[in-house]
Write a structure and sequence with these properties.
Order of helices and strands: HEHEEHEEEHEHHEE
Shape: globular
Number of strands: 9
Oligomer: single chain
Helix content: 25-40%
Radius of gyration: 16 Å
Strand order of the largest sheet: 7-6-5-8-9
Number of helices: 6
Distance between the termini: 20 Å
Structural class: alpha+beta
Number of domains: 2
Largest sheet: 5 strands, antiparallel
């Protein structure tokens, strides 16, 4: 039985298990990330505490050791760091949150090439509702990414899904240009 994504911890578990669809590879240690990623590959350090100031995204894989040292000096704990591959934000099409609604759908999104948290805090975040939501996502997502989103929303019909779409394929699944970061009930 899959738990309902009622909080960030459960949402993260669903992401790690691959149950939300396409995702970036994650690594429990810096050494594993450095062994798997090319030095110039985009990467990130996430911190397993919501709202933490200890995340570093995006960085180049070769910068991981320097940022680990910096974070440790600031009081971060190594066991709470998670290392991941990433994407070049200059290739971002859009990112945001989407949910089904009685009128079709609801979405807020940004095209700013910054982290999701920074993008959603900007004054120029766009809001769309109705059937236009699905036309926009169908335009931005590859067919496989769009089909994955629809399947996820069938499985979790009341969830808000957080996503980022890119101008090239990304993540662990082929033919997908979209990463689903989280699906959560609010």
């Amino acid at each position: 039985m899959i738990p309902a994504p009622t909080n960030k911890r459960i949402g993260h578990q669903l992401y790690e298990a691959g149950l939300l669809g396409n995702r970036f590879r994650t690594f429990p240690t810096a050494e594993e990330a450095l062994a798997a990623l090319a030095p110039d590959a985009m990467a990130g350090i996430r911190y397993k505490r919501a709202g933490s100031p200890f995340a570093r995204i995006p960085i180049r894989a070769r910068e991981i050791p320097r940022y680990v040292d910096e974070l440790l000096s600031l009081g971060a704990r190594l066991e709470l760091m998670q290392f991941c591959e990433g994407a070049d934000d200059s290739l971002l099409i859009a990112q945001g949150e989407v949910q089904r609604s009685p009128t079709g759908g609801w979405m807020r999104y940004s095209t700013a090439p910054v982290t999701m948290r920074a993008a959603m805090a900007r004054d120029d975040v766009q809001h769309v509702s109705g059937h236009a939501v699905w036309r926009m996502l169908e335009h931005w997502f590859t067919p496989s990414s769009y089909a994955d989103l629809q399947a996820l929303l069938e499985f979790l019909p009341n969830a808000v899904v957080e996503w980022s779409a890119f101008r090239q394929n990304v993540g662990m699944l082929p033919y997908r240009n979209t990463i689903v970061w989280e699906a959560r009930y609010y």
